[in-house]
Amino acid sequence: MYSNCISFFCKVKIVVILFLVVLVQFSQAQSYDLLIKGGMVIDPKNKINSVKDIAIKNGKIVEIANAIDSVKAIKTINARGLYVSPGLIDMHVHAFAGSGDADVYIADGFTSVFPDGFTFRSGVTTIVDAGSSGWRNFRQFKKQIIDRSQTRVLALLNIVGLGMKSRFEEQDKSDMNPQQVAYMINKLYPQLLVGIKSAHYWGDFSQVDLAVQAGNLAKVPVMVDFGEHDPPNSIEDLFMKHLRPGDIFTHTFSYGVKGRESVVDEQAKVKPFVFEAQKRGIVFDVGHGGGAFSFSQAIPSFQQGFYPNVISTDLHTESMNGGMKNLNNVMSKFLNMGMSMEDVITRVTWNPAKVIHREELGNLSIGAEADLTILSILSGRFGFTDVRKTKIEGNQKIETELTLRAGKVVWDLNGISMTAWEAESKAH
């Protein structure tokens, strides 16, 4: 009897040991936290435009291959029939939201938006605030918005110390201080500040020149929202005499804005110096906005071979409730005007990453932070509007299915990362 008991306990011990060995081997086999399987991967930096699997562990991309065994992953997301891209970068938004004075426009105002409410649902994981704050109030913007956001928030620092408080403050040359701007970028917040903004100036080229002076000191690009000049200043002079290669002209397809010269003339011809400026290295940014995108400019430009370098929204409450709506909608306009999906993705990932000198973003390289977007293209009959209440019709519409920020699901439109409720019920 005693020997039989020993034999029984030995057998139990062996079974337990074998179970533990299998458990360890299984846990080791599950070497990935997440596997995105079977999607059409578009990664312009790495020249990928094919069906691939992507494995993620500890918030990083660790493997991309034609086929990765699902057994190796704790969770697998089926992306067949969908597009997989780096997390989208919206290079022109206004996110300095707050409860500022009634006369405040963008800086700490109601027109700006809180990032997380409007980014992930459009596949955006990184935004660049386009000069809402200046050197006087950037620290408030950082504490109030940047530090509290899951979205990666970078910023262009306005050449005006108070940023976009109102059109009147934006005219104050005494508050345009290149040395203070460059010091804040270089010494205080180099990880967050990626450039300088010049905007809404009513006078000559003074504001632009001061912004470029600051750009030279800080070694960062300048974005110019050019216009409201009476009479209009020459954009040819802006491109060829005042801006440097790598500087950014935003609201590229604006038309009919008082004091702003357009890139397409009254005969629907792209002005020849526009092509020369792009060859020179001037970056053309869409910056759709609430008043800065017209099909009468964009379509002739496309027909004549002039395309923007970057697609962005100029996100704020007025634009998102108007013709712009969100980044997916703006991307869809370009898709329906004839741009390929690969070219659209390039202009919201790798191109803006290069423009702002953050080349660790906008790609799916091994070791990169797993900011990742899964997109679908819906087929049907859709209407797309501009800021002048004209429209085009199209048969394709881009929609964000799922967004990962640092390897975590932050948006899942149709539950493709989730378990069916019946299976969950049986598990309990």
Report on the structure:
By secondary structure, this protein is of the alpha/beta class. It contains twelve helices and 15 strands. Helix 3 (178-188) packs parallel to helix 4 (206-218). It is globular, with a radius of gyration of 25 Å. The two termini are 40 Å apart.
Give the helices and strands, then pairings.
Blueprint: H1 2-29, E1 32-43, E2 48-57, E3 60-65, E4 73-78, E5 83-86, E6 88-93, E7 124-134, H2 138-144, E8 152-158, H3 178-188, E9 193-199, H4 206-218, E10 222-225, H5 235-242, E11 248-249, H6 272-280, E12 283-284, H7 295-303, H8 317-320, H9 327-336, H10 341-346, H11 350-355, E13 372-385, E14 391-405, E15 408-412, H12 421-427
Parallel strand pairs: 1-4, 1-5, 6-7, 7-8, 8-9, 9-10, 10-11, 11-12
Antiparallel strand pairs: 1-2, 2-3, 5-13, 13-14, 14-15
Helix pairs in contact: 3-4
Termini separation comes to: 40 Å
What gross morphology would you assign? globular
Contiguous uncertain segments of 5+ residues? 20-27
Mean pLDDT: 93
CATH homologous superfamily title of one domain: Metal-dependent hydrolases
Write down the CATH class of one domain: Alpha Beta
Strand content: 25-35%
Name of the CATH architecture of one domain: Alpha-Beta Barrel
Sequence of secondary-structure elements = HEEEEEEEHEHEHEHEHEHHHHHEEEH
Number of helices: 12
Number of strands: 15
Kindly report the CATH topology of one domain. TIM Barrel
Biggest sheet layout: 8 strands, mixed
- Helix/strand/pairing class, anyone? alpha/beta
